[in-house]
Design the sequence.
């Protein structure tokens, strides 16, 4: 996936959170959620890969194929930050 993908940004946010940079993690996550529309096929159409999907560990590991450790980091980030 490219550097503008929501998966990339979500992973970076989770890693920033783990390393203690909570402000940066939150900024990255919010920017990804507001600016990247990876699953929108047409303007105004439904979103298929929205930020809400990242709260589902099964979706992360089975559909998006994140490694279990990264999926766990994402779950920790979302629950601890209150962004879930």
Sequence:
């Amino acid at each position: 996936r490219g550097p503008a993908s929501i998966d990339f940004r979500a992973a970076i946010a989770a890693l920033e959170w783990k390393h203690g940079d909570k402000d940066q993690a939150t900024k990255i996550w919010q920017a990804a959620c507001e600016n990247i529309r990876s699953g929108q096929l047409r303007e105004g159409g439904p979103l298929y890969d929205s930020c809400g999907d990242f709260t589902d560990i099964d979706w992360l590991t089975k559909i998006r194929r994140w490694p279990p450790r990264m999926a766990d980091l994402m779950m920790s980030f979302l629950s601890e930050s209150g962004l879930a």
